[in-house]
Amino acid sequence: MKKGIKSLQVGHKFKGFMLIKEATKGVTSNGKPFLTLILRDMSGEIEAKLWDAKPGDETIYTAEQIVYVTGDITQFRGKAQLRIYSIRPAQVTDGVQISDFIEKAPVEKEVLYEKIMEAIFEMENPNIQRIIRAFVKEYQDELLTYPAAVSNHHAYMSGLAHHIVNMLHLARELCKLYPDVNRDLLYAGIILHDLAKVKELSGFVTTSYTLEGKLIGHIPMMVEEIGLMAKQLKIEGEEIIVLQHLVLSHHGKLEWGSPRPPLIREAELLHLIDLIDARMNTLNRALEYVEPGEFTEKLFALDNRSFYKPNI
Amino acid sequence: MKKGIKSLQVGHKFKGFMLIKEATKGVTSNGKPFLTLILRDMSGEIEAKLWDAKPGDETIYTAEQIVYVTGDITQFRGKAQLRIYSIRPAQVTDGVQISDFIEKAPVEKEVLYEKIMEAIFEMENPNIQRIIRAFVKEYQDELLTYPAAVSNHHAYMSGLAHHIVNMLHLARELCKLYPDVNRDLLYAGIILHDLAKVKELSGFVTTSYTLEGKLIGHIPMMVEEIGLMAKQLKIEGEEIIVLQHLVLSHHGKLEWGSPRPPLIREAELLHLIDLIDARMNTLNRALEYVEPGEFTEKLFALDNRSFYKPNI
Amino acid sequence: MKKGIKSLQVGHKFKGFMLIKEATKGVTSNGKPFLTLILRDMSGEIEAKLWDAKPGDETIYTAEQIVYVTGDITQFRGKAQLRIYSIRPAQVTDGVQISDFIEKAPVEKEVLYEKIMEAIFEMENPNIQRIIRAFVKEYQDELLTYPAAVSNHHAYMSGLAHHIVNMLHLARELCKLYPDVNRDLLYAGIILHDLAKVKELSGFVTTSYTLEGKLIGHIPMMVEEIGLMAKQLKIEGEEIIVLQHLVLSHHGKLEWGSPRPPLIREAELLHLIDLIDARMNTLNRALEYVEPGEFTEKLFALDNRSFYKPNI
Amino acid sequence: MKKGIKSLQVGHKFKGFMLIKEATKGVTSNGKPFLTLILRDMSGEIEAKLWDAKPGDETIYTAEQIVYVTGDITQFRGKAQLRIYSIRPAQVTDGVQISDFIEKAPVEKEVLYEKIMEAIFEMENPNIQRIIRAFVKEYQDELLTYPAAVSNHHAYMSGLAHHIVNMLHLARELCKLYPDVNRDLLYAGIILHDLAKVKELSGFVTTSYTLEGKLIGHIPMMVEEIGLMAKQLKIEGEEIIVLQHLVLSHHGKLEWGSPRPPLIREAELLHLIDLIDARMNTLNRALEYVEPGEFTEKLFALDNRSFYKPNI
Amino acid sequence: MKKGIKSLQVGHKFKGFMLIKEATKGVTSNGKPFLTLILRDMSGEIEAKLWDAKPGDETIYTAEQIVYVTGDITQFRGKAQLRIYSIRPAQVTDGVQISDFIEKAPVEKEVLYEKIMEAIFEMENPNIQRIIRAFVKEYQDELLTYPAAVSNHHAYMSGLAHHIVNMLHLARELCKLYPDVNRDLLYAGIILHDLAKVKELSGFVTTSYTLEGKLIGHIPMMVEEIGLMAKQLKIEGEEIIVLQHLVLSHHGKLEWGSPRPPLIREAELLHLIDLIDARMNTLNRALEYVEPGEFTEKLFALDNRSFYKPNI
Amino acid sequence: MKKGIKSLQVGHKFKGFMLIKEATKGVTSNGKPFLTLILRDMSGEIEAKLWDAKPGDETIYTAEQIVYVTGDITQFRGKAQLRIYSIRPAQVTDGVQISDFIEKAPVEKEVLYEKIMEAIFEMENPNIQRIIRAFVKEYQDELLTYPAAVSNHHAYMSGLAHHIVNMLHLARELCKLYPDVNRDLLYAGIILHDLAKVKELSGFVTTSYTLEGKLIGHIPMMVEEIGLMAKQLKIEGEEIIVLQHLVLSHHGKLEWGSPRPPLIREAELLHLIDLIDARMNTLNRALEYVEPGEFTEKLFALDNRSFYKPNI
């Protein structure tokens, strides 16, 4: 079972460095000020209470500050909480940095990049290949660092590229099993499907939605990007419509945000591969913190189911 | 009550010119060939049977051919059918033309154009005004001739512009009643919301869906068009996102094809005005063929309800 | 942006008169009694805590009492709360009265009455006119003071009449645009549709549902009222059934409480006008407390959507 | 297995008297006129074709005419059809009458009446008893002859009273099992719940919906009737609201036409007893025409399920 | 109105014996340890706070310990809470035992057993009779002591048998009213339908779900048991399939956990009888704690409805 | 594009051997008998009309008879129909046999068997391995010949084994990508999940549902089989519950017939692999009969979508 703040039980003591994600000031029923901090390490987050806040503390303990904390784990309304005994900002001499507290994909981004380039290299249709290559070039930095979501699946640094590379792995195998599938379309759909997340999300440190993300969403944004790129590269024809359809339909149903359901074989397959990798990522991450014979917490992205880890 | 093929009852004789919309060849149980024609006039369509088809008839009686027909109205499985006694292709000397058989908006397209230009003229935000003006210029011909749908509401020549102008009329009044509403946004949303129907549909004679219409749909197509136009006119900023959102959300719900629900006041209002004009158009057209005290046929676009025409 | 309790931020001080809407006694974990008050002004409500309650305070600070309060705004579980420093009941010399704390329609009730009478005057069908006139006479006081709901849209004094008058304004315009619409029916439907709210709700000060409201609801209650009134005025015929149908179907769908969906053109239009005015009222009121560039809180009556106020 | 037209198989000959329910004129593909008749006996209906219709036949063979027919059973699109060889109108000397062809409840209406009076006699609350007695008196004839539905459950002469009496039987037993149940309310709810069907439906011969039935429906109609009756008998108080609620909520859910769900114990029980008797009546009637080891046709009123008749 | 912890109001004092159902340790914002106990008596449960917990208290006050408590009823977030003044474990001399705190069926288990045997005795099909007799013998102890659910209906000792016996009572009456119903099947379905709850649930003291209960559920478990028992008794034939179907379909719909809906008359009836007895049990228990003129709390098992207790 | 009856167009002549799947007798409007035959070859089925049926023909042309037919393809209500000119039963000398007309998996059953054994061989948990081996042995013949469905996916001879082997191929690859997945559980789930189809379906020639299939269904049937097999092999413990859960939950949702949703990682993956292989099989088979640039017919098993075959 993995270690970290997420694995601590009520009654445990804690001492170590944490990153502040959010900080809010409050006042107790006795009129004393206190701070509520959301602290995180690689394993997850915890709500923490600094009951004896001193004047000025709220200007020191703010988002993205690293702190050294001692305290113990209590429980409030059924959730673990950290009661802080002592706290101080990290100093240069502590040798800690923000990236120590941000979860990353288990594969290096250089490897992820190579695997994506490999898939592009295998493509046979020159129009599709040119478009995909141009997109990967244009968004290379973001593609290799952004998460695939704010929470839920692949919500970690390089999560977007990690998700793409996993899907390409599955796609390669499915093309062997179902040889009629058009590999170029499937690969292209996989690389593009979530690419506009680099515009829908704010970044990889404290990820949130941009205004465009909230009002338009990554699916129509990417359809537009494909249209613009095709104009720019002077590519015309059915390939463009089909690529747009692949992105447009990858959520599978209207009520899940795709204004058209998959109407092409490769679009259906893209949707299903996306489903598998997203769900397995969510599940694997949840099961890491659970002992055999126990159930996970309720997983929102999996219809609020609690999953059992068998003793087998 | 309106006249035309739609108003004829079982047992009536018919004689006159009609436009062939579709033609299919069949073989009777006695092995004799026959033709099934879908004939239309301004009031609607009827299935017709030419039981004694001669060799070669199927090459004469094809879609978009005008014919002179005599026959009588029978009933098949609860629907009116025309049994053809005689048929011949129309000749130049008959003085009939395709446009005589195609329903048109009750307002001339020049008037519709003027009303749209009037609304643009009232706009105060220069960016929004420029974009809308550019779109109306680019698609002027199609905007003034296309229907707003294949069937359902405003499914007639210039139906798209007629729908827009009705909605502008309502919008003007709503802006008086709710003065906080941003008139520029509402007008712009109305003019753009269905504009990509000129790419989603094939034209105004025998209207069908294009491939792009089927695989992408007019909503994401228009979002893309707005992005391209903004690039072309070098306009940037929140106006573009907001215009795209207005178009994107105008179907009101994810399951109705809007990947985002309305999240801006004017988007909500646009959706509701669209609903009113679409439903009233469908209802008014159906009630024209019904006597007081009777119910219409089931209206698919209104959840299959039959509407009653009161004796009041 | 509007002023009032609803616009105060965490950390702000407050001092002024407020109306107590609800009062509950509690005991802290130290065994000390405290009072939880729901206080309101014209802008809305806030939960307030009087931590140092003295014996007898619970008999002084009760619902519908005006109080002078000082305190500051804290936050509890994400919602603003008022921590009370001092409190005292208002006195005659303070010159404040309950109506100062109750939101009212932005139009005087005399004006609202006149507009309703104007619509009745325009009616041509004598039966319909007589019935509507009789209803307005019978319920004149309540009609002009009741809100249209407990919370949600037009939940303020004279909200019911304000809602009716807005709808009549829209109806007048729609009858111009769609001349086949029967104006008498539409006007009559608008005036009657929510009239039984004067029996479903308890009044306009601290509005709640009556037993009849909870067990029967304003729709079937109004259908019954129309039947009784027709009997009393000795009016018979289709008008009665049609008026009852207009009221019965105005929620639009069975799952929204209409046992029949609209089956008459004017019933469909009534439902849509009601939708527009209810939603615009809710939206406008929510956006008043939000700065451009921000989102409103989640609006329950609009499917829990948060709306964005553009910088345009 | 029961006998009658419903039990005949393809290939069988038929000869006997039938009642015409509907008659429509048609024209064959050879231009010859024919008649489509819906014929019925006690067991059900069959579509019949009179291919060689003579001029004038359509004025002889009309709805509610009894005819003597010979023919054989064919199949058209999966449904049995009667091909008529000979047909003639019944004559006085034939000794047949309409009531011979209309299904009736298996219990005499005098017995049904007595059982209803017995239940009223058992009531203890004088207000409830007076109201119910008054209703039974006012609608005695219709109550004892009307069916409970156009098709579906208890769709036969005296079906309404038969349904009520069955429900009273169950109610008596349930009051023993759950002694806290208020028997007066439950009995009253049972007698009134469907009573307005005598206004919703046209009668018991060729039953259809009235205009009021279509636009208002029996539930709000009965709520109104209770209000009127209470006024007439000068009864006031909670009994009236509760009786109205019982009728209003007896369909159990908003989407099934009850604007309020059951909110009183007896209302919940009324809904469930209604469900049991309606479903058992539908099921029993369908299973009568099926041999052990077979499945019934799909039953619309039971979610289109086909039921199996076991060999046990 | 019934007495017990569930009937106490805010402000009341309490003193008496209670059973601890759950105990959790917490730490206040001042760093002091406290205990949260869920205490129960026959009427229900209450959350209790022991604010001044001494070291070691958490090892004394654990689940299934009886305690003598004094305290008063406060309110936290809208729910009653018991603030403990003093607490001590019960001693032998107190003369209390766990069964004093556990709700039991209102009928003795010997009587329940007799009624079940009576129904078995009435059966005529020897195969069905043998199977049912064998099951009752095998699970006699659990059948007579287990509850029918963790919460919701019949959630008390011998609740399962009580539920069965009530259903048998109704079934006997329904067989009289609908004589075509196969009584053996209906009785057998009633006795078996929830029997696997003795494996799905952990017992009758602090009832929870077993692993098998969570992963498989009582319906498929019972289908399997019937198959095994048939093998053991060497019974073959349609009876087995039909009994399995009765159990399988008794939840009525796929979304309620029945992989097949009822497809046999007796299965439909079994589902409806189950519904009636479950709902009436829930309702009766909720109404016991409510005065006439009041509404119950929201009942989860009845779609979150609050029921009204009339003044009649 | 594939050849066969399914690929013929209206107007085409046909001559060749076909297998009769169903035969029904009819009578024309002129009173002449005719036969409706459902004929099939490897590519699919067609409705055929033998208009001039001679006496006795209905005893010759019955289900599972091979016939030599000439005729031409007509169209009836939008579907292709074969009008028969001549027909005769096949004779021994024709050298045709039933298996020539029944579609088979594209892989030999010996190869399928080997692949399944290979997967069993890789298992490490001895209990799971023993159970799976025992099942494959017990149902070897049926497992290798049965289809996986009546219509829809893998509805051909050896379709069940083909489906299993495809899923095992995918599973092997997924275990590489997600190394925490328990391969034994996943393989076992795949082999067992649809195995009870050999009892749910009647065979592979003219496949229909058995009574047990209709009343119980393959999911609960297989759960029972696992319980029996475990008893027989004297295997106890969590493996059995987990195997039963894998089978029970493989339809993914209650409304799709799984009384529990997947609650174990391998169950979720099993459901998704099943979905992929089922949908791809349906899609691939439909696209074989469609030219690039065209849409398939509506596919019931894919939510009635028509899929497009791109020109790429």
TrEMBL record, chains A, B, C, D, E, F:
Answer yes or no on keyword Ribonucleoprotein: no
One GO MF term, please? exonuclease activity
State the UniProt keywords alphabetically.
Answer: Exonuclease, Hydrolase, Nuclease
GO BP: rRNA 3'-end processing
Q: Record's superkingdom?
A: Bacteria
User: Among its keywords, does the record have Hydrolase?
Assistant: yes
The segment(s) forming the HD domain are 163-279
By its UniProt entry, which CDD domains does this protein fall under? HDc (cd00077), YhaM_OBF_like (cd04492)
Q: Which residues form a coiled coil?
A: none
- NCBIfam families recorded: PRK13480.1
Looking up PANTHER family in the UniProt record yields: 3'-5' EXORIBONUCLEASE YHAM
Designated name of the protein: 3'-5' exoribonuclease YhaM
Where is the organism placed in the taxonomic lineage, from the top?
Answer: Bacteria, Bacillati, Bacillota, Bacilli, Bacillales
